[in-house]
Q: What sequence folds into this?
């Protein structure tokens, strides 16, 4: 009996110690607040060549002249072949991957938005909003906002380079936390994206900031070293991109 009591006490002490909040330095917090995801874009450029790779392995290049969306997500793409000039339309369930360039109009809007919030200056890179790089979309079967029937859409991967365990996709209808401005000056605070689509293993879900703590163990709980360094009671939603990157680096060794 005494042994059982001792083991229980040790177990509770271990859990209590594991759950204790970690205090981070200002430098560590600044690093964790740095936004590492790519900017999410909703409008492909009609003037640059897009590449569509179908599930059958065939590849098609052309100018994207029309897209159809549902709840912001792309489910059909029309392109004009860059050689034959023939128009072709593909449903998302035919497409495996797609590479497009962001439209100039959206890049201009991203630039204006960047300078419209003082917080961006210390947490984001302007170059990600004005990128001339190709934007990567991949076919995924998802339930929009975890409420609709599962359906295939083309979703933008916003953490290429560290998406081998946890993939994060742009939510075109995501809202941002609010801030305030005085007499038309740049906004103070706010500007944090509230939701993404996230995939780990075979599970893909819509992840809102309000549900972050409930899903923390699913996302990161299989790495004891990470959980000790970044227990969920010590971190915030604002650090999400950093946490995904850090978890991936720790997992990969």
A:
């Amino acid at each position: 009996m005494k042994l059982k009591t001792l083991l229980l006490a040790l177990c509770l002490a271990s859990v209590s110690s594991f759950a204790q909040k970690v205090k981070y330095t200002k430098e560590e917090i600044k690093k964790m607040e740095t936004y590492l995801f790519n900017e999410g874009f909703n409008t492909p450029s009609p003037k640059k060549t897009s590449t569509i790779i179908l599930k059958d392995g065939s590849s098609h290049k052309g100018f994207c002249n029309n897209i159809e969306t549902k709840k912001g997500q792309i489910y059909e793409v029309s392109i004009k072949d860059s050689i034959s000039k023939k128009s072709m339309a593909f449903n998302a369930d035919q497409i495996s991957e797609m590479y497009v360039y962001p439209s100039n109009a959206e890049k201009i809007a991203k630039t204006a938005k960047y300078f419209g919030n003082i917080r961006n200056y210390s947490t984001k890179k302007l170059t990600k909003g004005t990128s001339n790089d190709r934007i990567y979309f991949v076919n995924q079967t998802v339930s929009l906002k975890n409420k609709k029937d599962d359906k295939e859409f083309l979703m933008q991967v916003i953490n290429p380079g560290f998406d081998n365990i946890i993939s994060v996709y742009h939510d075109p209808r995501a809202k941002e936390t609010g801030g305030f401005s005085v007499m038309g000056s740049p906004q103070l605070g706010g500007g944090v994206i509230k939701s993404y689509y996230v995939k780990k293993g075979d599970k893909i879900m819509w992840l809102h900031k309000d549900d972050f703590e409930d899903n923390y163990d699913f996302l990161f709980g299989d790495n004891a070293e990470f959980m000790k360094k970044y227990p969920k009671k010590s971190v915030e939603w604002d650090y999400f991109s950093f946490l995904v990157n850090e978890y991936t680096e720790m997992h990969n060794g």
